[in-house]
Amino acid sequence: MNNEKQRGLTLIELLVGLVVMTVLTSLAVPGFQSLREQYTVRSAGMAVYADLQLARSEAIKRNREVTVCFTGLGSTEWSYQLRESGDCSGAMIEQVSSQDFTGIKLEMTGIGGDRLSFQPRRYQLVTKKILLSYEQHKMQVSTWNNGIIRTCSDHNLSGVPACTN
Among positive and negative, which fits the CA dihedral 120, 122, 128, 134? Predict the structure, then answer.
């Protein structure tokens, strides 16, 4: 009679462990997908917010109009440029493309079409709403005529205040 203890796992124990891990992983993946979508929307929204703040500060620093010129609005193939002019023909300060934010749709409402101009003085900015969305997740970047730029979300994005309209 052999009194040695067996070490290791049987094949059945190993297979049961793999099945449990597979079930737990399949339950967790949809939650991670939603978190990734939220992060992508928040990242794109904060990039737009930061660039609008940059355009405002560049207008003050240069003492001349700086315009954010958008192309491809209403699609996932958008881009925008910060230009040192009111008509999108001046020197380019910065350029951003949707390639950095795959799947994000960008829309804009308000007066002035596809551009947003910042003057060197306050109270000369038009009111606009820029909406970034990915699936059911949405974030809004708003500008007001007093020069204020704000972000908000009606879709419970963590780290983004709720919209109050």
Answer: positive
